[in-house]
């Protein structure tokens, strides 16, 4: 087997460690040390941070609210991320679409009010309003407004217009991504003769209403300026608050560039989608289909996709610091609302379809939102199915190995060996102390790989075909190496046939 080339010319003279990741050849990806988590979404005007410019670290909801504005898309993402202990969390705000509009849901009150309870759910939060026969429509409308607006961290405000008996819920942020918010109304305990007629939205499972019709919830953010700001620094796991195909493609190009051999700022993206399976699949498989991105799918989720992405990115940031081959099967997503309607819970067939097309499905078990299996969005090589980088660990372990060996080189190997020479000829003595040569670096790499194997991260011992390949580039006078990684498989499945035997004795 020949040694791979990083693609950087041997004439390049700047001293540095140069590496290239090759996926789909038994390779993988991961991060060592403390992994920073970045959430990216829209702020409100009340937030003090500057959109497309500021990147701030936050440790509490109070800080989040001050920087991003209470209940903004960005704040909602940070709320969910902060539920994960020991997280190093950063926020970046993208400018709202200038010509965009805020999504709305409207409702007209009518009929006769008697004793009962109006039960709403928004963003996984219950809002209950008690009504009685002494109340007018205006009284009921005012009570609903007061109940919603008292919950300031919700992503909406509520208003009522007397005379038309109309309630309007308005999102705090502009843009088409607002259409992924769903307001649910449970009519179980409402007065039988009192009617709430919802308009200006698409209906979900009879009692759910997506924000925005043709006239509201319009416009898409443009991440171009923000991505320029993010070209330096490494944010290992990035939760993206939007999931439109234009910006998703820009994010993909961004992380590809930063992962280049000369920068090695290795990052992975987390998106989410709560629409129909086919649309979510198109985002994962057609738009992305990428080793460095993950797309979670929870159909008709009460939690917004931005929150789902933030929750998963946060968990990954903490878990993958020390476990580059993680097992997320059945993982409960803290703070993410379960699906209330059985029709929304993906069937086994739908889960399998999702997993074959680059989607990480989320299901509901025992009243909790759980990850079925955590995969990358990479699923096709051209038009052919390709599962060489399927599980998240397939992507994470490679990053881990690159960063780990980079640190080995920069902090130990080069410090102890500032000079370099080819391997000694047969029968010759090794170079003097302080001189690096290929076999010396091969020994260091082998020791490091043996450590990975001992931890259970590699399924094949790093010898033979899995041993590091090292040579000397005489033109550039540097050591050149290739490190094969055979990543361990997470145990997703076990088959067992139980055979009943009739004993005639």
Label the structural class.
Answer: alpha/beta
Number of strands: 23
Output the strand order for the largest sheet: 2-3-1-13-14-15-16-17
* Rounded mean pLDDT score: 93
**How does the major sheet shape up?**
8 strands, mixed
Q: What's the number of structural domains?
A: 3
User: Judging from the principal axes of the Cα atoms, what is the shape?
Assistant: elongated
**Relative helix content:** 25-40%
What are the low-pLDDT stretches, counting only 5+ consecutive residues below 50?
A: 25-32
Strand content: 15-25%
For the termini, the CA-CA separation is 61 Å
Question: What is the gyration radius calculated from CA atoms?
Answer: 27 Å
Tally of helical runs: 10
Description:
The chain has helices at residues 61-68, 73-81, 137-150, 224-229, 245-258, 277-288, 305-319, 348-355, 392-416, 438-454, and strands at residues 36-41, 55-58, 88-93, 102-111, 116-122, 125-131, 156-161, 166-174, 182-186, 194-199, 201-204, 208-211, 237-240, 268-273, 293-297, 359-365, 368-371, 380-381, 384-385, 419-420, 435-436, 469-473, 478-482. With 505 residues, it is α/β, with parallel strands linked by helices. It has 3 domains: 36-95 and 222-393, no CATH class; 102-211, Immunoglobulin-like (Sandwich); 417-505, no CATH class. The chain has an 8-stranded mixed sheet, with helices on both faces. A 5-stranded antiparallel sheet has the order 6-5-9-12-11, covered by helices on one side. A 4-stranded antiparallel sheet has the order 7-8-4-10. Helix 1 (61-68) packs antiparallel against helix 2 (73-81) and helix 2 (73-81) packs parallel to helix 7 (305-319). It is elongated. Mean pLDDT is 93; it is low at 25-32.
């Amino acid at each position: 087997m020949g040694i791979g080339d990083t693609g950087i010319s041997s004439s390049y003279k700047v001293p540095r460690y140069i590496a290239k990741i090759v996926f789909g050849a038994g390779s993988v990806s991961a991060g060592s040390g403390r992994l920073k988590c970045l959430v990216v979404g829209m702020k409100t005007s009340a937030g003090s941070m500057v959109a497309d410019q500021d990147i701030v670290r936050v440790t509490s909801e109070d800080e989040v609210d001050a920087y991003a504005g209470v209940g903004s898309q960005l704040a909602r993402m940070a709320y969910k991320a902060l539920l994960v202990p020991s997280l190093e969390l950063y926020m970046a705000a993208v400018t709202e679409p200038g010509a965009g509009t805020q999504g709305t849901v409207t409702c007209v009150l009518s009929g006769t009010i008697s004793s009962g309870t109006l039960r709403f759910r928004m963003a996984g939060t219950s809002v209950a309003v008690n009504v009685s026969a002494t109340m007018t429509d205006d009284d009921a409308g005012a009570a609903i407004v007061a109940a919603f607006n008292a919950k300031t961290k919700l992503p909406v405000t509520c208003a009522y217009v007397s005379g038309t008996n109309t309630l309007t819920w308005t999102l705090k942020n502009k843009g088409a991504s607002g259409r992924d918010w769903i307001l649910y109304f449970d009519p179980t305990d409402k007065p039988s003769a009192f009617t709430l007629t919802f308009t200006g939205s698409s209906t979900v499972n009879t009692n759910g209403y997506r924000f925005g019709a043709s006239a509201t919830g319009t416009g898409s953010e443009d991440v171009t300026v923000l991505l320029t700001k993010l070209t330096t620094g490494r944010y290992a796991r990035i939760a993206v608050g939007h999931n439109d195909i234009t910006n998703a493609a820009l994010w993909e190009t961004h992380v590809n560039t930063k992962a280049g051999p000369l920068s090695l700022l290795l990052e992975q993206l987390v998106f989410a989608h709560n629409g129909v399976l086919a649309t979510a699949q198109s985002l994962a498989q057609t738009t992305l289909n990428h080793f460095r991105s993950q797309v979670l799918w929870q159909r008709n989720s009460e939690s917004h996709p931005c929150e789902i992405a933030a929750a998963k990115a946060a968990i990954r940031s903490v878990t993958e610091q020390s476990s580059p081959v993680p097992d997320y099967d059945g993982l409960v997503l803290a703070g993410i609302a379960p699906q209330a309607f059985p029709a929304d819970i993906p069937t086994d067939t739908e889960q399998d379809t999702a997993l074959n097309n680059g989607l990480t499905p989320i299901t509901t078990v025992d009243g909790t939102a759980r990850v079925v299996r955590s995969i990358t969005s990479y699923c096709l090589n051209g038009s052919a199915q390709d599962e060489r980088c399927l599980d998240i660990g397939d992507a994470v372990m490679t990053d881990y190995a690159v960063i780990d060996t980079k640190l080995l080189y920069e902090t130990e190997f080069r410090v102890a060996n500032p000079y370099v020479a080819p391997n000694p000829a047969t029968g010759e003595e090794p170079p003097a102390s302080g001189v690096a040569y290929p076999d010396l670096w091969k020994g260091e790499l082998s020791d490091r790989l043996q450590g990975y194997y001992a931890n259970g991260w590699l399924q094949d011992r790093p010898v033979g075909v899995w041993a590091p390949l090292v040579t000397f580039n005489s033109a550039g006078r540097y050591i050149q190496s290739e490190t094969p990684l055979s990543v361990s498989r997470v145990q997703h499945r076990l088959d067992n046939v139980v055979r009943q035997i009739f004993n005639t004795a």
